């Protein structure tokens, strides 16, 4: 199996690897100069740098590189330590460079409106690749998203069905209406994406929450949704909101624990608002979902500055 082909395959799947390469050789070694070993995220390997105890030490170092994300150089003197030489006693020495191979994060941006375009620009600055999904070609196009790696401007449902986010992917939902947001969110929570965020006012978020709860979306799935989206940095303008959203994505990519108190959770918001089912009965009649939301809204805590008033 070719090391480079496997590296590309693992990268495309969104999985980390560590690549060990012999970069310097003096004398005789039990392999060849520039030999490579690729360690996958699950600890399995492709290629070899000579086998034996030396290779076992390289694999241990590769695991450290995978865990920490930092490259390192290691050296072996086979003359001084013949046990590293799988019994061949070649007597040479070698240096290996072990580097982490991490695929670029990708955000699937559902909605090509004003905030979506600004978020795409901010994501590009953070070196997050962007794919845009919208059923309006006049919005989802290369002129508005020049840095996008892909633009899906066809049928909304067909586009979502064709996209398969991996477990490191990011999903940001900023479609043009509650119904499309709900459809996109139901799709997103059915994927292994690492980050899911949906923009909107608390009224809108509660409306989408109740709709999807009735359709069988679970508490565990709602726990994965950042809504209201973005770090609470006091953002008010679309530009500031885009920055807060990308900042939250970076915090998730980097596992920044310090950012956790600034993040919002969709299920927690619904819990604070009260989870009374809608519609409700009033004087023998059934009220609308809108009326039901008016009943619970006074219990919602003060709005975060970063949310949009799109209800």
* CATH level-two architecture of the largest domain: 3-Layer(aba) Sandwich
Give the strand order of the largest sheet, numbering strands 1, 2, ... along the chain: 8-7-6-9-10-11
The biggest sheet, with number of strands, parallel, antiparallel or mixed sense and barrel status, is: 6 strands, parallel
CATH homology superfamily name of the largest domain: NAD(P)-binding Rossmann-like Domain
CA-atom Rg in angstroms? 25 Å
Poorly predicted residue ranges: 276-311
Outline of the structure:
The chain is built from ten helices and 13 strands. The chain has 311 residues and is of the alpha/beta class.
Structure commentary:
The strands form 3 sheets. A 6-stranded parallel beta sheet has the order 8-7-6-9-10-11, sandwiched between helices. A 5-stranded antiparallel beta sheet has the order 3-2-1-5-4, with helices on both faces. By secondary structure, the chain is of the alpha/beta class. It is elongated and about 70 Å long. Strand 2 and strand 3 (45-47) form a beta hairpin. The protein has helices at 3-12, 52-68, 114-125, 156-162, 178-188, 202-214, 219-222, 238-253, 266-273, 289-296, and strands at 17-26, 36-40, 45-47, 72-77, 93-101, 106-110, 129-133, 150-152, 170-173, 195-198, 225-226, 281-282, 285-286. The termini are far apart. The protein has 2 domains: 3-101, no CATH class; 106-271, NAD(P)-binding Rossmann-like Domain (Rossmann fold, 3-Layer(aba) Sandwich). The protein contains 10 helices and 13 strands. The model is unreliable at 276-311 (pLDDT under 50). Helix 3 crosses helix 8 (238-253).
């Amino acid at each position: 199996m070719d090391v480079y082909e496997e590296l590309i395959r693992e990268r495309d799947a969104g999985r980390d690897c560590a690549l060990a390469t012999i970069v310097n050789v003096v004398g005789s070694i039990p392999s060849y100069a520039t030999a490579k070993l690729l360690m996958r995220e699950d600890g399995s390997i492709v290629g070899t740098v000579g086998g034996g105890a030396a290779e076992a030490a390289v694999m241990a170092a590769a695991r450290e590189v995978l865990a920490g994300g930092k490259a390192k150089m290691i050296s072996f003197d086979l003359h001084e330590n013949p046990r590293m030489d799988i019994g061949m006693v070649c007597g040479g020495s070698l240096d290996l460079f072990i580097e982490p191979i991490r695929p670029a994060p990708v955000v699937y941006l559902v909605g090509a409106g004003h905030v979506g375009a600004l978020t795409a620009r901010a994501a590009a600055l953070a070196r997050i690749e962007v794919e845009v999904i919208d059923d309006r070609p006049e919005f989802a196009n290369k002129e508005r998203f020049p840095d996008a790696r892909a633009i899906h401007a066809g049928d909304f449902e067909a586009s979502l069905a064709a996209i398969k986010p991996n477990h490191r992917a990011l999903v940001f939902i900023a479609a043009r209406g509650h119904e499309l947001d709900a459809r996109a969110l139901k799709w997103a929570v059915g994927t292994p994406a690492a980050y899911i965020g949906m923009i909107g006012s608390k009224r809108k978020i509660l409306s989408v929450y109740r709709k999807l709860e009735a359709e069988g979306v679970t508490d565990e799935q709602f726990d994965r949704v950042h809504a209201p989206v973005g770090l609470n940095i006091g953002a008010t303008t679309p530009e500031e909101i885009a920055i807060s959203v990308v900042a939250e994505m970076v915090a998730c990519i980097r596992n920044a624990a310090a950012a956790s108190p600034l993040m919002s959770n969709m299920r927690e918001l619904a819990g604070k608002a009260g989870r009374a089912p809608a519609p409700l009965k009033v004087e023998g009649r059934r009220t609308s979902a809108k009326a039901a939301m008016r009943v619970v809204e006074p219990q919602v805590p003060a709005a975060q500055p970063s949310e949009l008033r799109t209800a």
